[in-house]
Amino acid sequence: MGQRTVIITGGNRGIGLDITRTYVEAGYHVVVGARNAYDLEKEFGDQVTFVKVDVRKESDHVLLTEIALQKTGRIDCYVNNAGFSEWRPIEEIDEAFLDDILNTNLKGAFWGCKAAAKVLGPEGTIINISSIAGKRGSSNNSAYVASKFGMNGLTQSLAKELGPKQIRVLALCPVLISTDGLLDALQSPYAPANGNPEAFISNFAKGNSALLRLPTGREVGNMCVFLASNAASAMTGQCINVDCGVLPQ
């Protein structure tokens, strides 16, 4: 059968780009679904297929699976990575903002899971990129936290539902990882960085991490590749922290 294939939403920047790189290095063909390609072809050539999608639309997730099957004839893993964070106190949250963050982070993952469940065979894997915010709340972050708690609940429920088909469903819960998206989000007057994201991240690592550092996007990618492999064949329904010991559980 064809080359091992993974679909990654938001696999064009930030943590998602690191996940894409890691799967390519592991020998996968990667189908990236996002709004912009950001020169993926320049870096990866024909190892990556880019598809312009809006993850808030169920039909776009179906399109990703159709293109992946046309490309290689198989889908081994579906990574729901697309999402964004923004700190806002509840009095500043309006319906448009709440719809955007829930539709992108939670509903986007839901539609990805639904599309993947239709096409994955036994030993297929769904991996949801959640957050440590899906396990504990934080001030001025209620909308994002709610979306990630929802993603963890989705993961646990679908692990039970899809387990009889031998499809495994897992979530990864990274702590703060220094990406352009996070640094931009930390510039918000409501974020905890007080206008200095780099200093905040450094101090957070020193004060909260068992390893006195924070994880990298590549380490998240390594975990994704591991979870999609037969080495993790007994693992499903878990929401695994990738946090250098910030929240030991």
From TrEMBL:
<protein>
    <submittedName>
        <fullName>SDR family oxidoreductase</fullName>
        <ecNumber>1.-.-.-</ecNumber>
    </submittedName>
</protein>
<comment type="similarity">
    <text>Belongs to the short-chain dehydrogenases/reductases (SDR) family.</text>
</comment>
<dbReference type="Pfam" id="PF00106">
    <property type="entry name" value="adh_short"/>
</dbReference>
<dbReference type="InterPro" id="IPR002347">
    <property type="entry name" value="SDR_fam"/>
</dbReference>
<dbReference type="InterPro" id="IPR036291">
    <property type="entry name" value="NAD(P)-bd_dom_sf"/>
</dbReference>
<dbReference type="InterPro" id="IPR020904">
    <property type="entry name" value="Sc_DH/Rdtase_CS"/>
</dbReference>
<keyword id="KW-0560">Oxidoreductase</keyword>
<dbReference type="GO" id="GO:0016491">
    <property type="term" value="F:oxidoreductase activity"/>
</dbReference>
